[in-house]
Amino acid sequence: MAKTIKFNLICDNKPIRTIDDLQNNFLIEDVMEYYDNGLLDRWLEVRGYESELEKVRAITTDEVMEVAKQLIKIFNITIEDKKIEESIYILSFLKEREERFSIYQKKNYQMNKIIKDYQIRYQQLVDGMLSNPNDIAIIKANICEMVSNYTWIFELNHRALFYELMEQSSLAIMCLLMNEHSRKYYLIEDENLTYDIDIEEMFEDICNMIQTNDFKTELGENLITFSGVTDGYWKDLEPKGKKYMIISMGQGDFVRAAGVSGGDLKSEDITNKFIILDGVDYKSKYSTHKLLYMEV
To answer: How many other CB atoms are there within 10 angstroms of residue 158's CB atom?
Structure first.
């Protein structure tokens, strides 16, 4: 009898030998690819995970989002629907890009046609955000695609994009600040450096925007608010392992990354800095003060 050859999956750039490994390093883009090409089925079979294999083989839908949700349920993964949607959008961008590259190779596209195609696709990403100003999953995914694969267009267009989004979506502006690649185009992160007038004006517009009465309403459930006296102790608001962007808090309050002793940040450290933390601890002695933040 031929020996069964066991092999590893690779998720989030880590070797996956067991279900526990899969749960600890679950990346929906990787798992969906393994599902599509049959490697997930084969891996479960050679590793002897008969129960999970039966459930995976029982999936009948072709709808990508539903497949993703069923896989997440089968492997007991805790993840929010918005995060699933964001990952699926990014995955769809990847597949679409691969298809277009294949077309370029087959048809031997001239450079000017490729550039025009890129410009058209970039505008579609912009239009997607403008058409869905309150859908954080679409906005995040579109921004990720823009800064990762349309970098040169984004660099040329980031000012016009800002003012276009400013008119229609405060949420999109916040998402630009959440993304590590796009935030540098809009923030003054070192007051000792000289920035061009465009960045200064955009930064000032953002700082003014978060002070308006409409800001909280427009962000809706995407904005997390906490208030309360913590009696001199740190209040564990969000666990380590998830990133959050701090928007504002009261004078005299403190915030830090989850469990980081000595990492105290006072209001002067976070005001108009849009600092991103791994988890959130909060300390306040004022019942009327509010901490505002968003999950990245």
So the answer is: 19
